[in-house]
Each structure stands twice: as structure tokens, then as C-alpha cells.
């Protein structure tokens, strides 16, 4: 009796039961496809050996983009403060900067918040 297995790494292994032992050997993909077809499993062969249709848009790994990048020079001292803020809250530097900007923008406007250069 024979059995065909596919490993987690995608290799094909044929098991052949003999008189008092089982013998295992690796098969090439072409040999595995042929074995599946010969043993009446063309649907399984098609599942593993038919090329997938080309994707129209490749998937991007990671988190979806929040917005376009913005370059800002913060200086060593301010960047250290931002990193300390991020570390204390277990968030990334980018999330910390977003949170700090949102907090500053939602503060109620006071005379001190309105003062700035040219005021």
C-alpha cells in the first residue's frame, strides 16, 4: 500500500508499506503530481499544482497606512521626551506623536494657547 504526504515545508513524501516495515522517500513535485493523477486524485493534484491566478494588486504586509509620511525635525531633547512618552505608554514613536498632536489640537483654546509668534 502507498500513501502520499506533503510536509509543512511543501516536500512530497511517499510511504510504501512492505512486508514488515514502511519505506519513506521524497518525490519531486512532478512525480507527486503524476502519482496523484494515477491514483484517481486529479482534484488534489489541481489544488497543489495549478498556478494561482495573478493578483491584480499585491498585498502589502503590516498595518494599513494611517496617512502620508510627514518629516519633522524634533531635536535630540524633544525626541527623547517623545520616546519616553511612547515607552511609558507602550506605543510606537509614530503613535505617540499622533496622540500628542491630537491632544494638543483638542485642548480648549485659552489665552496662553492662542499666544505665539506674532501675537
* Main beta sheet: 3 strands, antiparallel
Overall mean pLDDT score?
Answer: 84
Give me the side-by-side strand order of the main sheet.
1-2-3
Q: Report the portion of residues in β strands.
A: 5-15%
What global shape is seen?
A: elongated
Structural class: alpha+beta
* Helix fraction bin: 40-55%
What is the terminal-to-terminal distance? Answer: 90 Å
Order of helices and strands: EEEHHHHH
Low-confidence stretches: none
Instruction: Please provide the count of β strands.
Output: 3
Helical segment count: 5
What is the radius of gyration computed over CA atoms, rounded to a whole number of angstroms?
A: 30 Å
List the helices and strands and how they pair.
Blueprint: E1 2-6, E2 12-17, E3 22-27, H1 29-38, H2 42-49, H3 76-89, H4 93-106, H5 111-114
Antiparallel strand pairs: 1-2, 2-3
Helix pairs in contact: 1-2, 3-4
Describe the structure concisely for a colleague:
By secondary structure, the protein is an alpha+beta fold.
Main traits of this protein?
alpha+beta; 3-stranded antiparallel beta sheet; 5 helices; elongated
Describe this entry's structure for a reader.
By secondary structure, this protein is of the alpha+beta class. Among the domains are: 2-49, no CATH class; 76-108. Helix content is 42%, strand content 14%. The chain has five helices and three strands. It has helices spanning 29-38, 42-49, 76-89, 93-106, 111-114, and strands spanning 2-6, 12-17, 22-27. Strands 1-2-3 form a three-stranded antiparallel beta sheet. Strand 1 (2-6) and strand 2 form a beta hairpin. Helix 3 (76-89) crosses helix 4 (93-106). It is elongated. The termini are far apart. The mean pLDDT is 84.
Amino acid at each position: 500500500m502507498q500513501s502520499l504526504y506533503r510536509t509543512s515545508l511543501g516536500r512530497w513524501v511517499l510511504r510504501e508499506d512492505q512486508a514488515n516495515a514502511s519505506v519513506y522517500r521524497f518525490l519531486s513535485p512532478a512525480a507527486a503530481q503524476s502519482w496523484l493523477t494515477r491514483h484517481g486524485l486529479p482534484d488534489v493534484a489541481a489544488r497543489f499544482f495549478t498556478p494561482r491566478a495573478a493578483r491584480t494588486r499585491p498585498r502589502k504586509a503590516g498595518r494599513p497606512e494611517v496617512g502620508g509620511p510627514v518629516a519633522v525635525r524634533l531635536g535630540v531633547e524633544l525626541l527623547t521626551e517623545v520616546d519616553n512618552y511612547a515607552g511609558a505608554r507602550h506605543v510606537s514613536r509614530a503613535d505617540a506623536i499622533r496622540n500628542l498632536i491630537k491632544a494638543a489640537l483638542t485642548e480648549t483654546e485659552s489665552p496662553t494657547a492662542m499666544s505665539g509668534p506674532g501675537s
